[in-house]
Write a sequence for this structure.
């Protein structure tokens, strides 16, 4: 069987009941990866027992990395740091792949060498039932920066990317216990186009209380605003990108700030709303041509 120079990284935390399915979907690929790196983020269930069994049955080189519980960003970063091959593919331990996922995606990147990162279509399941996506959630091809500003536009388990991209944009932000993927896609999409493999090669499972998107749903707005602030504070964006980012920043801050005021958190709401004129002034100082757009 052909192999591709891809390191597959699976972070996991207390998902022993789901982990085997994810790993088996890697084993069953029509094109094998060069290695599988599983990062146990301090699990307290029987994950280690499952990993011992999987290691014995592994059809690809498998390495297990252990760390104290530090969240998905830190777990993925450890996996990236331990990975040995030029391409990285991520798979969350509650998701799984179609058997041709690596083959189709790796070959597409080789055939379209101008692209350094790719994602795929995905099927969404909630408690085992198919879930129809809204149009805004459909993945896009090419320049997806404006889409990434609005929401997390790239499914983590759909991604294959050149490892060296991390040297350019940095690793996952470990200060973010959630939305670390939103943060990374922003940093990549403002620099690079995304290659979409327009096939449902990834199955995403949702609707469980153990998912960080559920545990931190009330803090997601603040985390995304923090990501936008980092982007606006930097010097990577073009004038057009800065205008788009500022518009989304204004939208998210307005919604969050007014929500705080509505729930009698006046000090917090006022603090956030005061960021809008501050960042508008910073934008005009950096790109004087934006002043007319802001006035409009």
């Amino acid at each position: 069987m052909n192999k591709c120079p891809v390191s597959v990284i699976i972070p996991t935390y207390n998902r022993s009941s789901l982990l085997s399915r994810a790993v088996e979907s890697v084993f069953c690929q029509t094109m094998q990866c060069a290695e599988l790196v599983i990062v146990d983020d301090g699990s307290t269930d029987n994950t280690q027992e499952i990993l011992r069994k999987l290691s014995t049955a592994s059809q690809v080189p498998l390495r297990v990395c252990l760390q104290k519980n530090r969240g998905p960003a830190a777990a993925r970063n450890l996996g990236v740091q331990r990975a040995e091959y030029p391409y990285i593919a991520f798979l969350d331990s509650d998701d799984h792949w179609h058997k041709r996922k690596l083959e189709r995606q790796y070959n597409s990147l080789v055939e379209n060498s101008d692209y350094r990162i790719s994602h795929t279509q995905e099927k969404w399941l909630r408690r085992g039932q198919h879930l129809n996506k809204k149009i805004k959630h459909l993945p896009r091809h090419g320049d997806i920066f404006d889409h990434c500003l609005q929401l997390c536009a790239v499914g983590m388990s759909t991604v294959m990317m050149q490892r060296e991209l991390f040297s350019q944009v940095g690793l996952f932000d470990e200060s973010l216990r959630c939305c670390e993927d939103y943060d990374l896609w922003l940093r990549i999409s403002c620099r690079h186009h995304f290659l979409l493999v327009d096939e449902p090669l990834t199955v995403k499972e949702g609707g469980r209380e153990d998912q960080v998107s559920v545990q931190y749903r009330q803090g997601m707005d603040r985390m995304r605003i923090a990501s936008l602030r980092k982007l606006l504070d930097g010097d990577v964006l073009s004038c057009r990108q800065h205008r788009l980012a500022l518009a989304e920043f204004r939208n998210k801050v307005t919604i969050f700030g007014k929500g705080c005021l509505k729930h009698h958190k006046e000090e917090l709401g006022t603090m956030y709303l005061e960021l809008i004129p501050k960042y508008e002034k910073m934008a005009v100082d950096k790109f004087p041509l934006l002043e007319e757009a802001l006035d409009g």
Notes: The longest strand covers residues 195-206. The two ends are 60 Å apart (CA to CA). The CA atoms of residues 169 and 188 lie 7 Å apart. The mean pLDDT is 92.
